[in-house]
Design goal:
By secondary structure, the protein is mostly helical. It is built from 6 helices and 2 strands. Helices cover 73% and strands 5% of the residues. The longest helix is centred in the C-terminal third of the chain and has 52 residues, at 175-226. It is elongated, with a radius of gyration of 25 Å.
């Protein structure tokens, strides 16, 4: 249950982060559009999908498959996967089912990362207004795709803890402690990204105001000279 809650928290952070970034992008695009025309992307030109957008989920998926293959022959026929507060097991699965549950969520999350980033590239390509954006769309796509690695890391650690207990009768560390560390680190990264975005928004707004003031002053001087 704890793992499920942590995964939901990670997905919530992903949605919150994506929504905040999208809000900044559209807010800035509207501000720029009101002052000067936005250069549209050439017809037929599209924003390509890059594997770097999901490099972290892919790496964790591959690592999960490698570790599962390594531990497969060391696991007993009945694998303990749920433990009491004192660390003793109270639920078991067959070895095949345990392996499937270890790899399947990683695969699904990787596919989710790919689907999200691929869908956004198509939406940005259809809008054809990426050049007026506050930050490069590639940065947003890389963040939204790779942040899904956060719940994958937690699941990978939980898998290793299960394999370690069933192979060596030894727990690594409480999963909730590890998950808390990962979520704090992920929240810190998101916070830094948002702070940088806000600073750029403020800097861009000040620059537009300065340019508008200079143009207005120059226009007034021209009208005065002509008069």
């Amino acid at each position: 249950m704890t793992i499920i809650i942590l995964i939901l928290i990670a997905i919530f952070l992903l949605g919150l982060g994506g929504g905040a970034v999208a809000w900044f992008l559209f807010r800035h695009r509207q501000a720029v559009k009101s002052k000067e025309p936005i250069k549209e992307t050439a017809k037929g030109d599209t924003l390509p999908f890059h594997w770097s957008y999901i490099i972290a989920p892919l790496a964790i998926l591959i690592l999960s498959i490698i570790l599962t293959a390594y531990f497969y022959h060391q696991l007993p026929n009945e694998v303990a996967y749920h433990f009491k507060p004192d660390g003793s097991p109270d639920r078991w699965l067959s070895r095949g089912a345990a392996i499937a549950w270890a790899v399947a969520p990683q695969l699904l999350l990787t596919l989710l990362a790919g689907a999200i980033t691929w869908g956004i590239t198509k939406l940005l390509s259809l809008s054809r207004q990426t050049e007026g954006a506050l930050i490069k769309p590639e940065r947003v796509l890389s963040l939204m795709g790779n942040i899904i690695a956060l719940p994958q890391i937690v699941l990978l650690f939980a898998m290793l803890d299960i394999f370690s207990y069933n192979s060596y009768q030894m727990h690594l560390m409480p999963v909730w402690v590890f998950a808390l560390i990962i979520m704090v680190l992920g929240g810190t990264v998101l916070g830094i990204f948002f702070v940088q975005t806000i600073r750029r928004a403020w800097a861009t707004t000040r620059e537009h105001r300065r340019i508008t003031a200079l143009r207005s002053d120059s226009s007034d001087r021209t009208d005065t000279n002509q008069g």
